[in-house]
């Protein structure tokens, strides 16, 4: 019942926002080239659905590849840094510097090295999705209850075994939590790269429609991007609840 | 005065950067990689020193735009975060919407902002604003809403009103969350400003970097990337220091990773 009421709140807010947007646009006679109303955007979405879908699929594919590779690199490096702590000490400053480097200025370098389209998009997505995964894997591996480690040591487990039997399962909730940040980050990376260095994908469509003053098309592409973002976040939250639910037992937030 | 352990760390950090630089130099020279692909770092540094005044002026332009956007985004994000944290009505109706906006790439709005405003400084500041606004808003709200229930119960027993509870407990306890978000927002603001410059500006690091890439001027490209990277690291370090010295109590007795 409470959940139903909460959903109702959200729906009412969305409806009010959309209705007042439409009303302002109509009553103030704002030209669709400046700010199209929701109905105009919906019409545009429907009339150019086929090309929009094609560009959306390109963006989704790039995001998926970048996300998957970002997870793979993040997990491997995270485990390595925890296993060999001297490596962690040595690489930490370098990783911080790479984290801080604005990824937008790296896109032109990727563009130069790999050309237009998918390669720079995937590389940018990896460079953004990688860091949340890495930090959370490390945090998960380091937060093992010390009693577990003692018990395993007493039974004669080696460092690698402790990492495999306790460390990895322990870090899973952290990893799933990181997906919620890393997924949307990968999408940001792909969009940035497509805006600068691509001839297809939603980022490209947005910049192109901006340069020809087709604002309804721009809004339609932004809506597509928004839907992809929400689906990504929702999927991550779903998997978190499904595969790491035991970590949240008893918490009430 | 740094202790021996700290000195060792600084030495280790410096040596890893020197190691990477040497590796870069060797790879670029020994594999005979053409300059338009990867110039040796010595040539990049030479170029950087030779054209330092021009490069640094563009870096300053970008930093001005990023920091102004960051400041506005911080003020707005904090204010709205407090409102959402205070009023459960606003929270219930707007928070899911904000999460929806949070997970979309705000960078996609750059062309729209450019259409609505002009070229150059204004869209860059606005893009920096929206990219830094969301993490701060979400974290401030989270910080206010994840209060220790014992603390709230205690304050209520002492007869605290809702407003006093908010000012005396909620706001101070949300500060560690806020400062954690500020670090992320700082880097995000520079990303936003440079991206906007790439799409619609005649100066600034973003514009220069993209032009250099298109013209295969890698010396110029890497010089700009190195300097803006350095500025970004410095900003991150500064915001981390703020975090440590202003909300030091949040880390008491806790080892930081």
Structure description:
The complex is a heterodimer of chains A (253) and B (257). Chain A is mostly helical. Chain A has ten helices and no strands. The relative contact order of chain A is 0.13. Chain A is 83% helix and 0% strand. Chain B has two domains: 33 residues; 209 residues, MetI-like fold (Orthogonal Bundle). Chain B has 257 residues and is an all-alpha fold. Chain B is globular, with a radius of gyration of 22 Å. Helices cover 80% and strands 0% of the residues of chain B. At the A-B interface, α1, α4, α5, α6 and α8 of A face α1, α4, α5, α8 and α9 of B.
List the helices and strands and how they pair.
The complex is a heterodimer of chains A (253) and B (257).
Chain A: H1 2-27, H2 38-47, H3 49-83, H4 85-100, H5 103-114, H6 118-142, H7 146-154, H8 159-196, H9 202-211, H10 215-243
Chain B: H1 4-30, H2 41-50, H3 52-86, H4 88-102, H5 110-116, H6 121-145, H7 149-157, H8 162-199, H9 205-214, H10 218-246
Portion in helices of chain B: over 70%
Q: Describe the biggest sheet of chain B?
A: none
Pattern of helices and strands of chain A: HHHHHHHHHH
Structural class, from secondary structure content of chain A? Answer: mainly alpha
